[in-house]
Amino acid sequence: MSRIRLWLTAAATAIALTAGGTASASLPAAAHPSALRHSTLNVCVAVGVDGLSSATIHAEQYMPARHARGVQVFIPGVTYDHRYFDLRTKAGTVSQAQQAARNGWVAIALDRIGTGQSSKPAAGSVTTAAHVASIDHFVDTISRRYARLPIVLVGHSDGSVVAEGVAAKSDKVDALVVTGFMYRTTQPSFEGFPS
In the chain, where are the structural domains located? Predict the structure, then answer.
């Protein structure tokens, strides 16, 4: 638990800087957007629930120009893919993922199964339980790739529900940032949500 509290402060600071947008004016020259390294990831993961044995999760990854302070894995909501965290508008790019990388984080914005460039199984297999299981295995892969770096899950809307489910199952998650959904005092009604 103490590791989670320690990194939660760092994650909250990174998210606040990302959301604020004003922090980029004070960034050092090495943190200029062109200094970021971008790559795509396609990770085959086990799922093992709701008739889905395995799936491929697609993600866009941004690497910081300096030593990484940790990894942020961005999980979008139901009607979005990775582009929710990497918006391209007529006015230019507004990217929470790129800002996180400029702030020293490995930033990974993923497409949940059934969205973007990830696997698209039959609709009946695209459940909360399948999302939790697939992203849990995705986090295992990321943890091996970036050993000894803390991992922060950043969820939006239903992606926050999934992030909470993954954090409840995984011993690899050090912090959790949830946005865009309301807590309830009643039991969640999401099928497959871990107890």
Answer: 2-179
Residues in the chain: 195
* Tens of pLDDT, residues 95-149: 999 999 999 999 999 999 999 999 999 999 999 999 999 999 999 999 999 999 9
Edge-to-edge strand list for the sheet holding 70-75: 37-49, 52-63, 105-110, 70-75, 151-156, 175-179
pLDDT tens column, 58-85: 999 999 998 999 999 999 999 899 999 9
8 Å CB contact between 113 and 182? no
Q: What is the pTM of this model?
A: 0.78
From the candidate CATH numbers 3.60.40.10, 3.40.30.10, 3.30.450.20, 3.40.50.1820, the one assigned to the domain spanning 2-179: 3.40.50.1820
Closest residue by Cα to residue 152 from 114, 84, 106, 93:
106
Would you state the structure tokens that stand for residue 77, as one six-digit string?
């909501």
Distance CA 59, CA 90 (A): 23
Q: Count how many Cα atoms sit within 13 Å of the Cα of residue 182 in the half-sphere of its side chain.
A: 3
The CA angle 27-32-34, to the nearest 5 degrees, is 165
